[in-house]
Amino acid sequence: MRERRRYIAFEITKETNTSELRQVINFFQNRTPKSEQSVLRLMFYNERSRRGLLRCGHRQVDGVKTSMLKSGKIFRVLGVSGTIRAAKRKFLADG
């Protein structure tokens, strides 16, 4: 049976001098167990608003959120959704 997907909306809160997108990708690749990396994927990132969307399995949501919270206030979790469309509408709208 296929793993149910969840989408975690996040915001980068800390100012950085280097490419933020590379930092986001490297952060999740280095902090995630190898078995979960195939499920974990950066789906969307807006450099202007510094907000993005990360896909993971429904069983990994708590672990990913915990990793984000342990990052030293770099990330802020905006919310979790079951679809990309709903996550963008609820958490990433520029309104």
Count of discrete domains: 1
CATH superfamily: Ribonuclease P, Pop5 subunit
Poorly predicted parts: none
Mean pLDDT: 79
Give the strand content. 25-35%
Q: If helices are DSSP runs of H or I spanning 4 or more residues, what is the number of helices? A: 4
| Main pleated-sheet profile | 4 strands, antiparallel
* Counted beta strands: 4
Order of helices and strands: EHHEEHEH
Strand order of the largest sheet: 2-3-1-4
Helix content: 25-40%
- For the record, the CATH class is Alpha Beta
CATH architecture: 2-Layer Sandwich
State the end-to-end distance: 38 Å
* Rg, nearest Å: 13 Å
Spatial shape: globular
CATH topology: Alpha-Beta Plaits
Task: Describe this entry's structure for a reader.
The protein is an alpha+beta fold and 95 residues long. It has a single domain (5-91), classed as Ribonuclease P, Pop5 subunit (Alpha-Beta Plaits, 2-Layer Sandwich), CATH 3.30.70. It has four helices and four strands, in the order E-H-H-E-E-H-E-H. The chain has helices at 20-31, 34-37, 61-69, 84-91; strands spanning 5-12, 41-46, 51-57, 75-81. Strand 2 and strand 3 form a beta hairpin. The termini are far apart. The model has no long low-confidence stretch (mean pLDDT 79).
